[in-house]
Specification:
Helix 1 (11-33) runs antiparallel to helix 2 (38-68) and helix 2 packs antiparallel against helix 3. The chain has 3 helices and no strands. By secondary structure, the protein is mostly helical. The protein has one domain: Methane Monooxygenase Hydroxylase, Chain G, domain 1, CATH 1.20.58.
């Protein structure tokens, strides 16, 4: 695990989103265990996927604001870091 060098502005909001996603996934798992209708499960999985995507967007925004725009490094280094973040996520 990487060493933490600074606190991100949106860290608590991201942790809160992840906790909600975790609870949602547990509920979807219960739906499958209970034999609920597949279409209901798929709807909930789509909601989980959407929540994960929104959380990833928040992490990326926080990365740009907290890491890339902090004035550290050259424009080229900042651009390379941003491209690397995109490559990892997408």
């Amino acid at each position: 695990m990487a060493e933490v060098t600074h606190k991100h502005a949106q860290a608590q909001a991201i942790v809160n989103r992840l906790a909600r996603i975790e609870g949602h996934v547990r509920k979807v798992k219960m739906m499958v265990d209970e034999g609920r209708d597949c279409s209901e499960v798929l709807i909930q999985l789509a909601a989980v996927r959407s929540a994960i995507n929104k959380t990833a967007q928040a992490v990326l925004e926080d990365h740009v604001e907290s890491c890339l725009l902090s004035g550290n490094g050259s424009t080229e280094a900042v651009w390379e870091d941003l491209k690397e973040a995109f490559d990892i996520f997408f």
